[in-house]
Amino acid sequence: MALRLANQNTKRVAIGDEDYIVVLEDISRREFSQLLRVIPRDTESITADSAEGFTLALFNLFVKGWSVVDNDGKSVPVSEEAYFMLSREAANLIDAAVIEHFNSITPSAPEQQKSEDDSGA
Q1: For residues 94 and 63, what is the distance between their CA atoms, to the nearest angstrom?
Q2: What is the end-to-end Cα distance of the chain in Å, rounded?
């Protein structure tokens, strides 16, 4: 892998048959560091507030487009305000998709260890 800057490309992630979100494909080291500040540390004593803070941070960082429409069928721009106006079911679907995407671009603990072991430092 060549060293590179994080790109700002996006991709569409399907949610159900017709709905979708558009997410960043990659994030920078700075953006990842900002997420680390809100990731719940102890999963056994996780609170609703800490989980909410993390999912909101993921939403704000990753989601750049979506298929949400208002009652008249007009597209709703992505915003934190619109996110909080979603039905609980819709918000849960978006949260799950964003978390899955985040997990797909985040190396697992064994992958991180292998990378550190292979560094030869």
Answers
A1: 9
A2: 17
